[in-house]
Amino acid sequence: MYVRAVPTTDLNRNTEWFTYPGVWTTYILIVFFSWILVLSVFNCSPGIAWTVVNLTHFLVTYHFFHWKKGTPFSDDQGIYNRLTWWEQVDNGKQLTRNRKFLTVVPVVLYLIASHTTDYQHPMLFFNTVAVFVLVVAKFPHMHKVRIFGINADQ
Amino acid sequence: MITIPYLTALTTYFSYGLLFAFGQFRDFFRKIFDWWRANNLQGYAPICLGLEDFYIRRLYLRIQDCFGRPIASAPDAWFDVVERYSNDNNKTLKRTTNISRCFNLGSYNYLGFAASDEYCTPRVIKSLKRFSPSTCSARVDGGTTTLHTELEERVANFVRKPSAIVFGMGYATNAAILPVLIGKGGLIISDSLNHNSIVNGARGSGATIRVFQYNTPLHLEKVLREQIAEGQPRTHRPWKKIIVIVEGIYSMEGELCKLPEIVAICKKYKAYIYLDEAHSIGAVGKSGRGVCELLGVDTADVDVMMGTFTKSFGSCGGYIAGSKELIQYLKYSCPAHLYATSMSPPAAQQIISAIKVILGEDGTSRGAEKLAQIRENSNFFRSELQKMGFEVLGDNDSPIMPIMLYNPAKIPAFSRECLVQKVAVVMVAFPACPLLLARTRICISASHTKEDLVKALEVISQVGDLVGVKYFPAEPEKQEQLKEMIKMD
């Protein structure tokens, strides 16, 4: 019923909200309810709905986790302006619990989407591209790497 | 320790997610519109990159009327709040000439010196006529008056340290002293919930900064051991010096620092302690001498004691108290002393008179009465709020009590509803506190009377029911419990 909110040592106000209890549950619930929303709005099969959810999840999380850099407020004087949200989480420490959870979610979504569409093309192709890009972007070796200078600073 | 109901945590995340999503949509369409319209930058770079002020534009401006309310009188127990209105959905606020008299639960007026005082005000007016409002000079040039030297002696005496130095601004004290005390090659270990002035001063010093978990001496010891063993970042040489920075009362939690344990740990590992007593000096302790007196810590064990005069003394400015050598060194090197204009003389006189009243040197016992009154008021208010079912933070005897709200929509609801019922409270939202832990912070003063506090409690209880912030079960009244027991018999 009640949970304890232990204060963190993360000074970055952009990422410290991710360390409080209830984030993972909220994330999973948002994904699930968006699936129900897609089903009720488009009146399609469950497999197509999961594919739609998977692809929008890919676009949204790629944009906010791996493309946008910096923080939405100016209090920290721009010390994180070169880092994406993924690179800022947990102070740059790799392979923490939060990072592992966030890496597993696209994979689980991929499995559900491809299972419910019976592994048919073209949905399978798009789902595979989505999970491939997302999982590779979250590798520890990709920390602060900008391929071909895409999204690098001036 | 903050205990959140699990459902509230989920709804708070969802609310912030929704606000964020709406903000992003509006920004997206705004970008499309602005692409069509020509911009008038003429080749200059934009001042703001568009992402930096996202929080201000899309979340803060919506509830802007809850913050920064102008007041039209001294911040006493009752004060005048200027009414404002907005024609464009809170993007700009316009002042009217109407004022409403509200009960003040937001000002740092711990001992009631904010309004006109029978001992302090005549002396302040006399010093205003003699010394004029500004010294028009830095301390080093021509800005040291007899008031400043007397004030430094009195502060050192009050805090029980050999000597002290005063500055014109409390925030600037922290921000200007830390770069002087420590530089590159040093280590600053600061509590995770330290005030922004300490964070900025530490960043400006160039030293390496490590953070330990809020008010947890065991974690401080772990961080100290780890850092001393590792040494400086790349060279692994030993640190030039280590300073541990803690606060006396944390202004957003209202809790006291675990000073005896932290002092013991710092002595063991030979680290310096910097204690920021902005909220505790003058307000806690038997004779108002702050958190060292309350917790029984010898002031000789704390190396640098810092405090401000804005909270309990009704003035402005800050001080640093320490050993004679330290203060002498600061007088030669601190830029706030060498280049900043010195404290305004009437403000200095206000502090001198306030210290005299607190210590009883004005011949009356008003100081002791004020200290007893604030302790009684704080304990009464806190226990009543907890009985009603609110989640109130803070230790006993602390005059700061944050009431947790969590959901972003409850922040403006609570604030506006309380203002309608003539109670003025201060809201604390992101980024002053963590994103999810939004709260309203109540500051009790010695000038609040019991009747006023009871009325305020009724208003807060009503508004709390309306907004839905009573997260804990309320305790039934003792009389009702007795009646029920009698009925059952």
From TrEMBL, chain A:
One Pfam family from the record: ORMDL
Bilayer-crossing regions: 21-42, 48-65, 123-140
Cellular component terms (Gene Ontology): endoplasmic reticulum membrane
N-terminal signal peptide: none
Membrane protein topology class: Multi-pass membrane protein
Compartments it resides in: Membrane
Subcellular location, principal: membrane
Keywords for this protein: Membrane, Transmembrane, Transmembrane helix
InterPro entries membership: ORMDL
PANTHER family: ORMDL PROTEINS
Protein name: ORM1-like protein 3
Organism: Carya illinoinensis (Pecan)
UniProtKB/TrEMBL annotation, chain B:
Transmembrane segments: 6-25
CDD domains: KBL_like
Residue ranges occupied by any Aminotransferase class I/classII large domain in the UniProt entry: 102-460
Assigned keywords, A-Z: Membrane, Pyridoxal phosphate, Transferase, Transmembrane, Transmembrane helix
GO biological process, one term: ceramide biosynthetic process
Enzyme Commission designation: 2.3.1.50
A Gene Ontology cellular-component term: serine palmitoyltransferase complex
One Pfam family recorded for the sequence: Aminotran_1_2
One Gene Ontology MF term: pyridoxal phosphate binding
Annotated InterPro entries: Aminotrans_II_pyridoxalP_BS (IPR001917), Aminotransferase_I/II_large (IPR004839), AON_synthase_class-II (IPR050087)
Catalytic activity: L-serine + hexadecanoyl-CoA + H(+) = 3-oxosphinganine + CO2 + CoA
Enzyme class: transferase
Cofactors that this protein relies on: pyridoxal 5'-phosphate
Family, similarity comment: Belongs to the class-II pyridoxal-phosphate-dependent aminotransferase family.
Protein name per the record: serine C-palmitoyltransferase
UniProt organism field: Carya illinoinensis (Pecan)
Upper taxonomic lineage: Eukaryota, Viridiplantae, Streptophyta, Embryophyta, Tracheophyta
